[in-house]
Amino acid sequence: MTSVDTTQGVRRRKAASPFLRVAKRIGASLFSVIATLFGLLFVTFLIARVMPIDPVLAVVGERASNEIYEAAYKQLGLDQPFIVQFFYYVRDVVTGNFGMSNLTARPVLDDIARVFPATLELATLATIIGVLFGIPAGVVSAVYEGRWPDQVIRFIGLFGYSMPIFWIGLIGLMVFYGKLGWVGGPGRLDIFYEDIIPSVTGMILVDSLIARDWTIFWNAVSHIILPASILGYYSLAYISRMTRSFMLEQLGQEYITTARVKGLSETKVIWRHALGNVMIPLITVIVLSYASLLEGSVLTEVIFAWPGLGNYITNALLSADMNAVLGGTVIVGLVFVGLNLLSDFLYKIVDPRSR
């Protein structure tokens, strides 16, 4: 083999190596996602089998004859081996078939599509509140470390992070709705405003803006502002604490000292250079906080009679509607996986070194 052939082979390998690295990363990500989803489905399947609830009685009722019970038992595939039942379960979930809800007598997927926009609307507004107030609070807390602004912000964050969210919700309802009348009551709208505007996205604020109905928009704002602020307070406490931790680490770096020696203003040093580097890990914190609000706002939705996914799963669990419970659990897991992928994607955009 000549030196020219050797050089060309090396060049081809170098040209192919970036493609191979990208292919390996994509393959690893896909394998991780598939393994996570498979584990999620296996866990939910086990939950359905160990729960002390007879799925057959939930369908046919307690007064059904033995013949009807046996027929339903076979129709649900419960007479098949465990592995076969799991295969059928995975097949149904992949095709979007979560079964029928015993509570609403509708397909579970249709019910989730109806209630999830309410949770999405509430969690999104709460996350916006948490980010708008949590990041500045964390920065100020780090800059004034050990002094009274730091102590006050840390106390506020600790209170929001420690207090039971249902207790804060009840106190908020009693004070701001019951006593002061500053906000709307439970629910998404006053009852005489329901079903007036067409549902485009399922989110009342967005749909009322599309319809340009400002009366319904401000009524929806009065109802969502209190539960969103309570969830936002919980998110604020977490985001501010993490921002403070990241900022303290950055403010001790040499490049900060160099920037100050060069005569840059303290505002640019803190809000441009230090916070710019903090935003890279903070993206993951914000996305995970958003995911936790999407799946963890159950108590808030129950207290405020918010017709979202958390309230739906709670009512289904109280009614022993396992199809609805498992369907909602799978959707929550898919949301977590999707938001984690989004976090990785945003991380690579913000930090070119990770590409």
Description:
This protein is mainly α. The protein has 2 domains: 3-94; 108-354, MetI-like fold. 77% of the residues lie in helices and 0% in strands. It has 14 helices and no strands. It has helices spanning 3-50, 55-60, 66-75, 82-94, 108-143, 148-162, 165-179, 204-211, 214-251, 254-261, 266-296, 298-303, 309-318, 322-350. Helix 1 packs across helix 4 (82-94), helix 5 (108-143) runs antiparallel to helix 11 and helix 7 packs across helix 9. The two termini are 36 Å apart.
List keywords for this structure.
355 residues; mainly alpha; MetI-like fold; 2 domains; 0% strand; MetI-like_sf
> What is the CATH top level name of the largest domain?
Mainly Alpha
CATH architecture label of the largest domain:
Orthogonal Bundle
In CATH terms, the superfamily of the largest domain is: MetI-like
Strand content: under 5%
> By helix and strand content, what is the structural category?
mainly alpha
H/E element string?
HHHHHHHHHHHHHH
Regions with little confidence, pLDDT below 50 for 5+ residues? none
Evaluate the radius of gyration.
26 Å
Helix content estimate? over 70%
Number of domains: 2
What kind of sheet is the major sheet? none
Number of strands: 0
CATH topology of the largest domain: MetI-like fold
Q: How large is the count of helical segments?
A: 14
Mean pLDDT: 81
Domain ABC transmembrane type-1: 116-343
Transmembrane segments: 26-48, 122-144, 156-177, 216-239, 278-304, 324-347
Family: Belongs to the binding-protein-dependent transport system permease family.
Membrane topology: Multi-pass membrane protein
